[in-house]
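User:
Can I borrow your eye for a moment on a structure tokenisation matter? Would you put together a sequence-and-structure record for a protein of your own picking? Please set it down just below, with no commentary around it:
AI:
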Amino acid sequence: MKVKGFLIVLSGPSGSGKNTLISRVLPRIPNLKYSVSATTRAPRSGEVDGVHYFFVSDHQFDQMIAKNEFLEWAEFVGNRYGTPRPFVEKQIQQGHTVIMDVDIQGAVQIKRLMSDVVLVFLLPPTLDELRNRLKKRGQDATEAIAKRLEHSSEELEYIVDYDYYIVNDDLDRAAERLVSIINAERCRVARADLSAIQQLWQRRQN
């Protein structure tokens, strides 16, 4: 059954497991596309340009802003991140579901532009668990971890603006919940091709 494309945004504190969760869900849902963000920060170990992020210079990022090529963009811990607009719009027009992970600022910006976006907030089980995850990643200094934890507490206040929340206390369980959310949104009457439904119903009646 043909369904109108839409965008689903996953937000949550750094270390809550957004990328891991999306990687777990992507192979399970047909026509689910991941939107790769652009960033001015340097690649981390194992990250691939065009797969994890589009790694661009500050000058390139400025040019993309000037050309209105971002659905949203924000600065965090001295680096900028943005969602390229052309890819997302093209996939939605083709009837695909697009999923991305952005921070709270980005989600708010996208909501202003796309009223039917689905916002999902991903929570770690506890603040202590989040601290442990950030330390285990080994990607940030102690001072940066402290700033991320402080920022995470502030972000939680915005959960009321989201459509769904998931507590990532178990990756398999969190993945099941995200799959259920996406499938439920695909079943909204507002996203359906009603003429196709009527034709299908008539064929089954004959």
Helices lie at 18-25, 58-66, 85-93, 104-113, 127-137, 142-155, 171-186, 194-205. The first helix runs from residue 18 to 25.
